Target: Transposase
Amino acid sequence: MPRRSILSANERESLLAIPTAGDELIRLYTFSEVDLALIRQHRGAQNRLGFAVQLCYMRYPGILLGVDAEPSAHLLNMVANELKVPREAWNDYGHQRAETRREHLLELQAAYEFQSFTTLSHYRAAVHSLGELALQIDKGIVLASVLAESLRSKGVLLPTVDVIERICAEAITRANKCIYAALSDQLTRAHRQRLDELLLHKEGSKTTKLAWLRLSPKKPNSRHMLEHIERLKSWQALDLPASVEHVVHQNRLLKIAREGGQMRAFDLAKFEPQRRYATLVALAIEGMATVIDEIIDLHDRIIGKLFNAAKNKHQQQFQASGKAINDKVCLYSRIGLALIEAKKTGADPFAAIESVLPWEDFAESVSEAQVLAQPESFDFLHRMGDGYATLRRYAPEFLNVLKLRAAPAAKDVLEAIEALRLMNSSNAKQVPADAPSKFITPRWARLVKTSNGFDRRFYELCALSELKNKLRSGDVWVQGSRQFKNFNEYLVPVEKFTTMQLADELPLAVPTDCDQYLHERLTLLESQLAKANLMALANELPDAIITTATGLKITPLDAVVPDEAQALIDQSAALLPHIKITELLMEVDGWTGFTNHFTHLKSGDVAKDKTLLMTTLLADGINLGLSKMAESCPGTTYTKLAWLQAWHIRDETYNAALANLVNTQFRQPFADHWGDGTTSSSDGQNFRVGSKAQSTGHVNPKYGSEPGRTFYTHISDQYAPFSTKVVNVGVRDSTYVLDGLLYHESDLRIEEHYTDTAGFTDHVFGLMPFVGFRFAPRIRDLGETKLFIPKGDTVYDGLKPMISGERLKIKQIRAHWDEILRLATSIKQGTVTASLMLRKLGSYPRQNGLAVALRELGRIERTLFILDWLQSVELRRRVNAGLNKGEARNALARAVFFNRLGEIRDRSFEQQRYRASGLNLVTAAIVLWNTVYLERATATLRNHGQEVDTLLLQYLSPLGWEHINLTGDYVWRSSAKIGAGKFRPLRPMPGA
Model:
């Protein structure tokens, strides 16, 4: 029987823990009249209290309270209050004879039909009950929690945690065998031979074929595109059985692929055959999907580079001709004046021209003007032809290797792609006269359609450009891709959604009846419009005025910190002890044990050497990298750090460790001065990419001309950075706002969220209420952001400058209501990420019904928000304060991420994610450490007789780093001896 540990110490403790929150205690332990009648049959306060407590433990967590065990203080207080007996009566019950307690247990089991988990049949049934779930996930705490809940629902008392762990481990082992069989049993001898060849060295190379296949692409150019296409062809040549990727759950498939990806070919070759082939199949499925997505991304970026190059050439040409154009304009201005004067006086117009310059010179100037003149459209597309050779080098292979499918909206583009494939296969130089042309937009038509038929260059350029757009929007998808699948495949299956809808089980925070929802929102909208209109007419909007002449004017908020608060900030900062970053991480780990979450990918064990693990984490956090960290940290080597990173550090372990720190911050009493953990903000921070990573970066004019990456981070009102994500600088921040709110693992319950202008779109506004958040962005140029009102005769003169001439399309919302519900349900359940859906819905040129309907919902919510903003200075202050915290956190992050000139130099996207996660983890540790010591600093001030106004504590911030040494050798040895539960001494008070 499996003996490996699948539960951490914290998980074992939490599995049978008694809740401490008041509402949970009430829900679980409130007695019914039947319960109270049975309890009252026992004589004496101690017997009634003891009997009731035993009942509570048998119900939840579903165990017998041991003879020598003390009940939870929270539970004991609640039960004593409920029964109106003193809690001290428990002490008398605990000293009763053992027979009394045993009699009570037997009575409870008989009265409530509780069963003991004692037989082999119970054990086998428990293992069997977890079989389906274990095929989907192998996370021990999830399986154990489901098992415990299942036993409770059946009235079966839980066995010991050791037994629960053995049951879960056996269920996982059985599931693994089933998964290995499902992935390998369909393979023929030829399949197995081709898979085994992946572990051999590639001809003429020192690396294995598998390692070569898993390499990421380099720069976005035709040569590297062709190299990556060769990789995809090699994956496809495996010719795995059809639909083999669907025979096991995607979570388990990804886990097997990750494990296999961390192993050397030598280690994989030693696996027993069934497991070896299953692992190689998982690697092949994931590898193929990754390569397909990377090829499409390369194509997207190459097209983008060609567009940018064409635009730049166009601008340079125009600028170079600027003087000549200006001279011609001046000349023709003089000629025009002469002609006007000639008409007034009746003089000869030709003589008027010749009075300015000789006729021959005039004729020559017209010829020169024709050369200088731009096309009527003044477009740069004609310059795209200069880059045709780049596309042509890889386009035939690119189109042949991808298995494209299309929705009806993109059928014409797919037909054009088929025409190009035929031309490529037959080496045709000309585009057939009957080639598909419906996909050609008016902008391209002037170049593609000529008097002699289609221009081959521009026909192909147009088709490949439109293919890029359709892939982005989801109208075209690719078989085998992850990021470019059929739109519907991302969503909850229609049958499951319909069942949930009929059972009223949709996990949404709004009424799911369309009429009810629209009635509530439109009634509120009309009420708010009327109220704001009256206030605007009476000039009673607080610190705001709306006029026809100037539009909206809002008085800026006063952001000055009171002098008393500044003095407290300075005094508290002066008391914080100087500390090295290594010492800080050790101390925080001593409080929280966050390093325990970095478990081994395969065994689930915690890292044996915590200092080595923290060295690896710090290498990410301060952007030093493993090689340089090994040189800066005595006693370690690159090999040790690389092994730890490979097996213990990944996205889920980073997320769990971060949640630990955020939860600890959330429970710090001192953090309540900054907020209650129900509001948050998010912002993107740009980092340049350099060296080998330069080819992975994107350029955004907002950040300059150098390529970069954005770390998009969410921070709570208590300064805890609870989510971070690496994103493309060219994608709008709003795409990722919901991801951080929905998919973090902390105990925060965010209700209201703030962003700057880049963080909002109407689609985000529309989705926010459905998934349970109030959205409050700080919108730049708010006066230019229009209010949308329903159709009707109501006139709002006071708001007229801000009201859009376009009315809300309520019919569109009604027509696509079920699609909106299905989309929101899929996002809330995590079937698909919000960012992926928002990116597709917002992509040009998709204007389908769902996108328009969601936009109309967003316009309702945005209008309601703006009306609230106009009427509430408190809302403006709240949003401003929240965003200021995020900006201050960015300053701390910039200071921590100082190595390599603050540049990201890792080419692998996985390594870039680790950099962002490491940075966020280190900043979260600094925030927590500062919070703890700021509380001690203010207590010290009070102890020295200084009065500290509690209202001023909100101005303190745990984001300072002047007292933290971030540089030098990274030695894991504390300069101060700190006992368990103790703290390092503060710096002395000035003058003390």
